């Protein structure tokens, strides 16, 4: 005996059927999601969040105000004096050419300012260091020097030879003369003046 079961299929959508209205009712908005933090070791969220922010602020202040001075203690030495373009050596190593500013590590340092044909300024200097706010306001110390001309004939001979090889650079002559005058604080001895005039006259021969 066979049994026939008539399964009614769900009618498909047609243009004559009404469309379901999916528009949300007026006045309804997105649902709010509430996040609740759980206590940690029995400490309420408001307490441990405040402590977390405080630790973060302390770390930032430490790395900005203290860490640079702890990692690299020392001072900036500002070298200024006459003549210019002198070589600065710190603990025997080249550090710059004047005028210049050089960072020097804290401690007792050997500092030399040298230039050919001039005297040497050699000193032992105790360089201090500051820990607090060294990144924001670095510590600076002025190093003033004055080198006396010790070999005028050698200086003029060297400058004249340099100018003979580079006659298109008149600054060689002018800078040499100005450095000599400044090294004597504008009170140049007569014998040096005579050597300087002879140097200028010889230099003019190469400028033609």
- Output mean pLDDT: 84
The residue fraction in helices comes out at: 25-40%
The order of strands across the largest sheet is: 3-2-5-6
> What is the total tally of β strands?
7
Which descriptor suits the 3D outline?
A: elongated
- Main sheet? 4 strands, antiparallel
CATH class division of the domain at 69-145: Mainly Beta
In sequence order, what are the helices and strands, one letter per element?
A: HHEEEEEEEHHH
Structural class: alpha+beta
Question: What is the CATH T-level topology of the domain at 69-145?
Answer: Immunoglobulin-like
Point out poorly predicted stretches: none
Question: How large, in whole angstroms, is the Cα Rg?
Answer: 41 Å
Q: Based on the structure given, which CATH architecture of the domain at 69-145 is correct?
A: Sandwich
The fraction of residues in strands falls at 15-25%
**Count, helices:** 5
Measured distance between first and last alpha carbons: 133 Å
What does this structure look like?
The chain is of the alpha+beta class and 208 residues long. Among the domains are: 69-145, Immunoglobulin-like, CATH 2.60.40; 152-206. The chain has helices spanning 45-65, 67-71, 152-165, 171-183, 190-206, and strands at residues 74-82, 87-90, 93-97, 100-105, 107-114, 121-127, 140-146. The strands form two sheets. It has a four-stranded antiparallel beta sheet with strand order 3-2-5-6, with no helix packed on it. The chain has a three-stranded mixed beta sheet with strand order 4-1-7. The longest helix is centred in the N-terminal third of the chain and has 21 residues, at 45-65. The radius of gyration is 41 Å and the shape is elongated. The protein starts with 44 loop residues before the first helix and ends with a helix.
